[in-house]
């Protein structure tokens, strides 16, 4: 894409000196004399974004101008997130042209100022090519660029920050302040606390030190108070502790203990959902935690040996622990609450280009950026699907030549931005300007692999991913060496030149030894090999402009901006997507990549049509007409009946890792059936395979996760969850009352809530659960007694007409009014009101374990077992709901007699019974692809609701992304 015309140039060139002639830029996508804007069709649209839960308008701007091929979602995200100026004022941006021009012209002006271009004509080509690539969604800068560049506010371009803290109160307080300023700007930060002396060491005054875990509380409270960028989402932060720190066990257990607190408070009726009123009382919830392990520790784990924990002040071993037990503690904690993650210290520093300037001790919140303390990284990601080509005969290829030219363009722009960027602290500014860390990456890998007929967990899929990653990083460093010849190498290069060149050789050797699989990856490997040869040659001649070049970030909001089907290195979420339509409304569509994949696999058009129709109906490819079983794996996704195995995710990370400067933002999702041993094996294999960092998430391990969409009918009958969840098959019916027989089993319970006494009698059908409830409180004829009678009748009639008990439980638990307080029931120690207690007790007596567990209702025995084993299980003393008539009553004290006539008003219908459809939940509307997948597949999506618009979020790397409004829980 470019060629360099330069003589030797050193550090002065980075300040705009006259030692070099600059880069010559060639056109790739644009035409001389024609502006990129003139080649597309523009249209006006109205952007009105609402909170679907209450219908309130979150954002509104009408008449915005965008190309006609941009999706509704992309237009909404860009307009609401990135347009600058107050809405309704003349200063407000009104179209994509203004947004792109604001950014691109700033980059061009800085490039000219600092001597990057050989001539004004080259600067103009650079502007046009950059504009074209952004306009056509070929790549995107990270969000801070769109927020800040070209505005009157500080020109912050970095999304990722690493801080440092020393063993002094002054440094700790500086940490709080610096972190707060970064959160205020909408970004995230990480740091390693291992320099702070442990609670097992003494202060200079003679007292015991507090230890890093105690100081984490203050930082966590600060992060929770500030919020990120003044928005409703939490701040993004990473806290790392070395495995040889004496407080490592306390660090590992921090979130596990808080998770138990959340469960206890929730069971007591407090609002502990994400964003709930009471969740702020829980600590350590605003950070991702990771333990930094080294090779010595992992070898001790393998050998079953002891491992020394070292004093921070002297470095001497003050305690020895069993390495396997400590490693298992990490796995147990991660299994229970997803923290801590793991980072492999020796692997990370083996690929460090600047070790003479300091070790890599921490990462950004999502674990993809790893470099020196007090540094930052600006990100940009390419849309891989834009480089997939089809010839006239239908043969596919990845356009490696054009891909490399776009990488050169983007790396040039990213390096230019450091020349004019502002930073939140002077220390970060100094380090970033001295080492010029960049983070180019990509999105849509999952879609690309499927479209090319590759299973995500396959040798061919990993080979293509590795080849593209190698070509991207090799081209980036080649351009970095060319830039060093024009504007000088980074300031820290001279001191680290040997190490930097050693790492370049490591990348090149990994490229040379990688496995070539098929006709798609082999040409990409060849282009990557040529790029790495150039890197070694030009690096020896000029040095390098950037200490770091590439990472794989989550690509959350910018992935939506580029209309990507998949984020970062992730596989596809599901085969059916939720799509918003121009003019309002939405529809579900089968991924556009599916027909491409089927065509690549050799299926005829009529076969493709039949398979796509099957996927649209069922949400998966199982039993699709004409689809060969050996091709099922191509369509495996992150969710669904055929979800990708956890090790499939780890192997994909291992395939890309040797060709990245930094690391990979990715969480390995594991099914709810996973054990602690499974988590430990993932962490062990990550180290063996050379991954730099790993995080796991076991489904349903966190409190407050959304309920499964699988219906009771599906569970009982064994039919597929897909068929049970299909809204189209829900039958409308007139409810029929099913009366209880004259003789009915029942339970009578005496209870006390906040000092108020009462009795509850719950009668059931002999074979099918609860059928009536009656309550006795206060004296007969009193207002309270009358209200209890009326309430009992209403609930009982509803149950007999088929209203599920879980519906009543979800509606009436946590309802607050007096009397409230302590109860005499060991399973429900606190109640917010009488009805809160009643329906918690009914849930415990009549609902199956899985249903009430999802509602957060457990017996005392189950809660105790969870404390002992780390998992809830139904107790041996639980009532047999299916065979209630043979169960011993829990309460033998008789309750008051009560007439049953109130429940017998209507004449019984002969042979009346509830149809199977009556227990099926009413169809609900999807508001994102995650919700659609949950409905289609009958799965737990394991994602929080967006605090801005109420939409179910989806995972993007180590973070969560809202498809509705673009909010993220991460730092990019």
UniProtKB/TrEMBL annotation:
KW Nucleotide-binding (keyword) present: yes
One of the record's GO molecular function terms: nucleotide binding
Biological processes annotated in GO: DNA biosynthetic process
Cofactor or coenzyme needed: adenosylcob(III)alamin
EC identifiers of the protein: 1.17.4.1
UniProt feature, compositional bias: Polar residues: 884-893
Reaction(s) the record says it catalyses: a 2'-deoxyribonucleoside 5'-diphosphate + [thioredoxin]-disulfide + H2O = a ribonucleoside 5'-diphosphate + [thioredoxin]-dithiol
Keywords: Cobalamin, Cobalt, Disulfide bond, DNA synthesis, Nucleotide-binding, Oxidoreductase
Residue span(s) of domain Ribonucleotide reductase large subunit C-terminal: 158-697
Basic and acidic residues bias locations: 916-928
Domain named TSCPD: residues: 744-844
InterPro entries the record matches: RdRp_reductase_class-2, RNR_2_N, RNR_lg_C, RNR_NrdJ/NrdZ, TSCPD_dom
Disordered as annotated region, ranges: 1-24, 707-726, 865-930
Catalytic EC class: oxidoreductase
Chain ranges of the Ribonucleotide reductase class II vitamin B12-dependent N-terminal domain: 47-137
One of the Pfam families matching this protein, by short name: Ribonuc_red_2_N
Annotated NCBIfam families: NrdJ_Z, PRK06556.1
Record function comment: Catalyzes the reduction of ribonucleotides to deoxyribonucleotides. May function to provide a pool of deoxyribonucleotide precursors for DNA repair during oxygen limitation and/or for immediate growth after restoration of oxygen.
Family, as annotated: Belongs to the ribonucleoside diphosphate reductase class-2 family.
Protein's UniProt name: Vitamin B12-dependent ribonucleotide reductase
Native source species: Streptomyces mimosae
């Amino acid at each position: 894409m470019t060629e360099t015309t330069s003589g030797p140039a050193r550090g002065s060139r980075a300040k705009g000196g006259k030692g070099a002639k600059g880069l010559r830029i060639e056109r790739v996508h644009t035409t001389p004399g024609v502006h990129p804007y003139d080649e597309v069709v523009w249209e006006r649209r109205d952007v009105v974004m609402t909170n679907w839960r209450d219908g309130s308008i979150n954002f509104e701007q009408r008449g915005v101008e965008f190309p006609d091929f941009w999706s509704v979602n992309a237009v909404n995200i860009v307009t609401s997130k990135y347009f600058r100026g107050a809405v309704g004022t003349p200063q407000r941006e009104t179209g994509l042209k203004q947004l792109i021009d604001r950014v691109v012209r700033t980059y061009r002006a800085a490039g000219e100022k600092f001597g990057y271009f050989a001539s004004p004509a080259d600067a103009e080509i650079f502007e046009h090519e950059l504009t074209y690539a952004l306009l056509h969604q070929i790549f995107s800068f990270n969000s801070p660029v769109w927020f800040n560049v070209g505005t009157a506010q500080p020109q912050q371009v970095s999304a990722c920050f690493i801080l440092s803290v020393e063993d002094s109160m002054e440094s700790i307080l500086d940490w709080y302040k610096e972190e707060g300023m970064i959160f205020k700007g909408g970004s995230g930060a990480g740091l390693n606390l291992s320099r702070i002396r442990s609670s097992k060491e003494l202060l200079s005054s003679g007292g015991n030190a507090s230890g890093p875990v105690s100081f984490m509380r203050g930082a966590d409270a600060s992060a929770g108070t500030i919020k990120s960028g003044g928005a409703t989402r939490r701040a993004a932060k990473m806290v790392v502790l070395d495995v040889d720190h004496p407080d490592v066990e306390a660090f590992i257990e921090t979130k596990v203990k808080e998770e138990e607190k959340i469960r206890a408070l929730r069971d007591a009726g407090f609002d502990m959902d994400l964003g709930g009123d009471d969740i702020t009382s829980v600590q350590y919830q605003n950070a991702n935690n990771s333990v930094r392990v080294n090779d010595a520790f992992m070898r001790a784990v393998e050998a079953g040996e002891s491992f020394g924990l070292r004093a921070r002040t002297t470095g001497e071993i003050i305690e020895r622990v069993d390495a396997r037990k400590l490693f298992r503690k990490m796995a147990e904690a991660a299994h229970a609450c997803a923290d801590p993650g793991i980072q492999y210290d020796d692997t990370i520093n083996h690929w460090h280009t600047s070790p003479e300037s300091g070790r890599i001790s921490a990462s950004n919140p999502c674990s993809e950026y790893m470099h020196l303390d007090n540094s930052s990284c600006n990100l940009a990601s390419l849309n891989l699907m834009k480089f997939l080509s089809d010839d006239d005969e239908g043969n596919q290829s990845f356009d490696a030549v054009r891909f490399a030219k776009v990488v050169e363009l983007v790396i040039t722009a990213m390096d230019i931005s450091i020349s004019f960027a502002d930073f939140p602290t002077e220390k970060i500014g100094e380090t970033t300007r001295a080492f010029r860390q960049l983070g180019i990456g990509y999105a849509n890998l999952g879609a690309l692999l499927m479209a090319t007929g590759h299973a995500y967990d396959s040798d061919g899929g990993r080979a293509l991913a590795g080849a593209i990653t190698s070509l991207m990083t090799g081209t980036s460093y080649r351009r970095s060496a060319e830039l060093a010849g024009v504007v000088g190498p980074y300031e820290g290069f001279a001191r680290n030149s040997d190490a930097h060149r050693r790492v370049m050789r490591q990348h090149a050797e990994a490229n040379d030894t990688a496995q070539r699989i098929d006709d798609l990856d082999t040409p990409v490997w060849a282009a990557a090999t040529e790029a790495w040869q150039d890197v070694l040659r030009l690096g020896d001649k000029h040095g390098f402009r950037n200490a770091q070049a590439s990472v794989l970030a989550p690509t959350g909001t910018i992935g939506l901006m580029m209309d990507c089907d998949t984020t970062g290195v992730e596989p596809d979420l599901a085969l059916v997507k939720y799509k918003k339509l121009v003019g309002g409304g939405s529809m579900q569509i089968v991924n556009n990549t599916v027909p491409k994949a089927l065509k690549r696999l050799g299926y005829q058009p009529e076969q493709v049509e039949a398979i796509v129709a099957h996927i649209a109906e069922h949400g998966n490819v199982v039993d699709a007409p004409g689809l060969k079983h050996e091709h099922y794996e191509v369509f495996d996704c992150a969710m669904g009946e055929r979800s990708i195995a956890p090790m499939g995710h780890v192997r994909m990370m291992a395939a890309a890792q040797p060709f990245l400067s930094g690391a990979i933002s990715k969480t390995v999702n594991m099914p709810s059936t996973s054990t602690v041993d499974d988590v430990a094996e993932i962490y062990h294999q990550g180290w063996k395979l050379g991954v730099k960092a790993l995080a796991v998430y076991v489904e349903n391990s966190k409190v407050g996760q959304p309920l499964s969409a699988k219906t009771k009918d599906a569970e009982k009958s064994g039919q597929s969850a897909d068929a049970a969840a299909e809204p189209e098959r829900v039958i409308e019916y007139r409810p029929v009352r099913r009366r209880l027989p004259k003789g009915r089993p029942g339970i009578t319970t005496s209870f006390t809530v906040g000092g108020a006494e009462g009795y509850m009698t719950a009668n059931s059908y002999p074979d099918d659960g609860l059928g009536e409830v009656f309550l006795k409180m206060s004296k007969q004829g009193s207002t309270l007694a009358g209200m209890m009678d009326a309430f009992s009748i209403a609930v009982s009639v509803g149950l007999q007409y088929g209203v599920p008990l879980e519906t009543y439980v979800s509606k009436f638990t946590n309802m607050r009014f007096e009397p409230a307080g302590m109860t005499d029931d060991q399973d429900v120690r606190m109640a917010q009101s009488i009805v809160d207690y009643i329906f918690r007790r009914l849930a415990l007596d009549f609902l199956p374990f899985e249903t009430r567990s999802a509602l957060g209702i457990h017996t005392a025995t189950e809660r105790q077992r969870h404390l002992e084993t780390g998992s809830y299980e139904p107790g041996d003393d639980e009532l047999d709901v299916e065979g209630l008539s043979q169960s011993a009553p829990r309460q033998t004290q008789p309750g008051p007699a009560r007439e049953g006539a109130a429940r017998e008003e209507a004449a019984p219908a002969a042979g009346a019974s509830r149809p199977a459809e009556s227990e099926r939940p009413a169809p609900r509307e999807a508001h994102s692809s995650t919700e659609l997948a949950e409905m289609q597949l009958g799965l737990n999506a394991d994602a929080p609701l967006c605090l801005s618009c109420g939409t179910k979020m989806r995972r993007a790397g180590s973070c969560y992304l809202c498809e509705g409004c673009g909010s993220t829980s991460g730092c990019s």
